[in-house]
């Protein structure tokens, strides 16, 4: 991999007293062929009320004018690294966080925006909750979508300004949504351990994988006031796809992520099987069906398969959600792992 520096000298007066020692926060922007959005994204970082940060941009071998856009900003807090070859979404996210030098790490996709007080607000929250691994917040949507505030579906409290979730509460997000949003995360750098699993190079659901692993390490904070803007457009990775093959692969990846995280929660004694089962019995049917399909995999441990069977037998309201569950109700539970094996072959993805 080759690194390209984009630092240009500014005077101390220009930076209003910023120092050259290790920054408090590293803002990480993983990017690929988004030069048309990247300039606005960079400006939203440079406009932060908190000035003690470095901005690290990690380019996944873009073929557009990304390097020129970065070079147009004359600010010594900017570092630019370009991979020699494309390494994929998960690997680029992992690489940029590993290169961070700050005590805290913030992640911002190349098409989204920070509001001016995002970093200051996050640090204030983390100072108040020293055990929390990371801070996240609601998102303000704009662009090619319905505008409004977006928060994880599992968070029903939209009024409390700042909510702390303990590691044990990670179970309450399973199969529903991520415990926060990656594009608003400000994390303690020492929690981004080398063993953190980001998924393979082609993996897409890095948010749920990484945020849940971080949550296990001390819990997380969620702020209801949005300090990040999420841009909706036709090339969003998280946008629903009309390509059936891509949609099926994404679904298989999500099921794998849920299965991996449930096993991790049990292996780390963050929760016990009864917690998983109680969760599966209490959530709406669409999420319960996803949990059953995820845990009922051929690749699951015996404990996970038993959990899936218990929830499946008790939830006769999930059959209308999933044709696989409907068939399994008639033929037997073994249909669920068998159908996943067929899907791996048909849609060209397997863990």
Describe the protein.
- Strands 1, 2, 3, 4, 5, 6, 7, 8, 9, 10 and 11 form an 11-stranded mixed sheet that branches.
- By secondary structure, the protein is an alpha/beta fold.
- The N terminus is likely disordered.
- 42% of the residues are buried.
- The protein folds into 2 domains: 231 residues, Spore Coat Polysaccharide Biosynthesis Protein SpsA, Chain A, CATH 3.90.550; 104 residues, no CATH class.
**Number of domains in the coordinates?**
2
Q: What do we call the CATH topology of the largest domain?
A: Spore Coat Polysaccharide Biosynthesis Protein SpsA, Chain A
Helix-strand pattern, N to C? EEHEHEHEEHEEEEHEHHHHHH
CATH class of the largest domain: Alpha Beta
Q: Mean pLDDT, as a whole number?
A: 90
* CATH architectural name of the largest domain: Alpha-Beta Complex
Seen as an oligomer or otherwise, the chain set is single chain
Distance between the termini: 26 Å
Please outline the major beta sheet.
Answer: 11 strands, mixed
Give a short overview.
This protein has 351 residues and is of the alpha/beta class. It folds into 2 domains: 231 residues, Spore Coat Polysaccharide Biosynthesis Protein SpsA, Chain A, CATH 3.90.550.10; 104 residues, no CATH class.
Write the layout of secondary structure elements.
Blueprint: E1 2-3, E2 25-31, H1 35-46, E3 53-59, H2 66-71, E4 78-82, H3 89-98, E5 104-107, E6 113-114, H4 118-128, E7 134-143, E8 148-150, E9 162-165, E10 186-188, H5 206-215, E11 220-232, H6 244-267, H7 273-282, H8 285-295, H9 302-314, H10 323-331, H11 335-347
Parallel strand pairs: 2-3, 2-5, 3-4, 7-11
Antiparallel strand pairs: 1-4, 5-10, 6-11, 7-8, 7-10, 9-11
Helix pairs in contact: 5-6, 6-8, 6-11, 7-9, 8-9
């Amino acid at each position: 991999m080759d690194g390209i520096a984009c630092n240009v000298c500014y005077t101390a007066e220009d930076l209003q007293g910023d120092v050259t020692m290790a920054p408090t926060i590293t803002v990480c922007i993983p990017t690929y062929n988004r030069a048309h959005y990247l300039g606005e994204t960079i400006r939203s970082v440079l406009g932060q009320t908190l000035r003690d940060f470095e901005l690290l941009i990690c380019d996944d071998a873009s073929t557009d004018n990304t390097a020129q856009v970065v070079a147009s900003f004359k600010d010594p807090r900017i570092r630019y690294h370009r991979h020699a070859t494309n390494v994929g979404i998960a690997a680029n996210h992992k690489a940029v966080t590993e290169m961070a030098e700050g005590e805290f790490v913030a992640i911002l996709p190349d098409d989204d925006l920070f509001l001016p007080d995002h970093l200051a607000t996050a640090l204030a929250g983390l100072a108040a909750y020293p055990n929390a691994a990371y801070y996240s917040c609601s998102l303000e949507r704009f662009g090619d979508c319905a505008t409004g505030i977006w928060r994880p579906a599992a968070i029903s409290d939209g009024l409390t300004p700042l909510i702390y979730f303990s590691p044990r509460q990670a179970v309450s997000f399973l199969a529903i949504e991520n415990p926060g949003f990656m594009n608003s995360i400000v994390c303690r750098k020492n929690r981004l351990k080398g063993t953190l699993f980001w998924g393979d190079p082609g993996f897409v659901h890095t948010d749920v994988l990484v945020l849940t692993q971080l949550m296990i390490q001390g819990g997380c904070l969620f702020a209801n006031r949005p300090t990040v803007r999420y841009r909706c457009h036709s090339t969003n990775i998280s946008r629903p796809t009309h390509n059936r093959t891509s949609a099926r692969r994404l679904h298989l990846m999500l099921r794998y992520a849920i299965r991996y995280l449930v096993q991790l929660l049990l292996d780390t004694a963050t929760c016990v099987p009864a917690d998983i089962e109680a969760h599966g019995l209490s959530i709406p049917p669409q999420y319960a069906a996803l949990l059953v399909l995820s845990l009922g995999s051929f690749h699951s441990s015996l404990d996970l398969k038993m959990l899936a069977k218990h929830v499946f037998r008790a939830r006769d309201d999930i059959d209308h959600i999933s044709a696989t569950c409907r068939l399994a109700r008639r033929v037997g539970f073994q249909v669920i792992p068998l159908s996943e094996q067929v899907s791996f072959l048909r849609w060209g993805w397997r863990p």
